Amino acid sequence: MSRLAAYIVTAPGLEQVTAAEMARLDLKVVDLGVGGLTASITWSQLMLAHLHLRTATRILIRIGRFEASGFGDLQAGLKEIPFHEWLPKRCALNISVSASASRLNHTGAIEERVRAVVRRSYDPAYEYEGGVHTLHVRMSRNICTVSIDATGDPLYQRGWRTESGPAPIRETLAAALLQWSGASTHKGVLTDPCCGAGTIMIEAAQMARRMPAGRNRSFAFENWMPVDPAQWSKLLAASDADVRGPLKKKYVARDLKGDMIAKAQANAERAGVLDDIVFEVGDATKLFNGPTGGAGLAVVTNPPYGERLSAANQRALYLELGKAERLAVVAPTSSLPSFKREFDDTLATSNGGLAVQFARVAFSG
């Protein structure tokens, strides 16, 4: 098991963004799919990916692949997989089954056979010493692929955002916007005038200071049998040593509501970047009322849309945001003309199940 066959799950549309991030971490991408990438990685790279990848949702490790046209084939193939070499003792197993274009298509029956071979149960009412692990079994064209979830809770759950407001942007999506737009390498001040829980500026500040995205949480793979705890500890120490000092040019996060600013500050404190961001209560529709207008302002934001804002107020807000010299936004495709800017590039993805576009202008992605 010197190299691992990994599948890195992403939000649809972000595959190239995650591939570019993996390349910066020297992680070898084998193939790009829809909603994910396959990669060949080492154990240390698996740990590194969990610490530093900001745009991926989770990482699965393939431990078996075989043809299964019937339940006999399925059980025989499963018995060839050394589950005991992966899963810790006294752990629980959650089994996720999907099936398409296969003779075996009853997911419940497939799960029964898997559990009979693995002999691990799961009752959410109990706590398990070895943790709860998830086994993904995918049947496609009579080929069974068995993978273990190395991540546990999704990677967008960094551990610091315990307070949020309406329609928050996921941490992974915020990081993807920053990376794709080029804002993450911008040398000047970044501003989010619709900051909500502060996610975008917190992600930006952590990136600028080289703080590992996964430093404040644990992962499922930490309990796996082959994992060397000493190697994991050394990697954590090396990542901590690489963190830069506080930002000299503080980022700016504004919101119309004082209670949201208080939540954003609490999140920033848990993330270790409270002193890197100036938090202000302010009206984004009056962002450029000063004498300089939008000159020099670099805005990265997830402005409200849909039911959160009336059509007239949305147009007024977007028109004001469009005055920024540099702009990176998340918004529905139909709303982009309201910014009155000719964007350099756009990227289709989704936010909270709603189809949206990343759009950028004057940043170099």
TrEMBL record:
Coiled coil regions, renumbered to chain: none
Domain Ribosomal RNA large subunit methyltransferase K/L-like methyltransferase: residue ranges: 158-323
UniProt cross-references to Pfam families, sorted A to Z: RlmL_1st (PF22020), UPF0020 (PF01170)
Protein name: Unannotated protein
Domain RlmL ferredoxin-like: 8-60
Species assigned in the record: freshwater metagenome
GO molecular function, one term: rRNA (guanine-N2-)-methyltransferase activity
PROSITE patterns: N6_MTASE
Alphabetic keyword roster: Methyltransferase, Transferase
